[in-house]
């Protein structure tokens, strides 16, 4: 194996094409769903404090999950779809 790259097998790739889209550190879909749910509780039910607490806790958990694995939501969705084969 040579250390030199072979011509034609390497292309420049922008970093934005490989990183997930995050809103405030949380995955985009989770952040939107969390904000919508918190707004429904806070504005729709007029429960301001529980809506704010729901948003803070939900966003904090989403950011924590995204720091561990930026693809944690697709992995979790796949985990829920697959049945357990080696369940003891």
UniProtKB/TrEMBL annotation:
Keyword line: Membrane, Transmembrane, Transmembrane helix
UniProt entry tagged with the keyword Cytoplasm: no
InterPro entries, per database record: Conjugal_tfr_TrbD, T4SS_VirB3/TrbD/AvhB
Regions that span the bilayer: 47-66
GO cellular component, as recorded: membrane
One Pfam family named in its UniProt record: VirB3
Subcellular localization(s) per the UniProt record: Membrane
Protein name, as recorded: Conjugal transfer protein TrbD
Lineage: Bacteria, Pseudomonadati, Pseudomonadota, Gammaproteobacteria, Lysobacterales
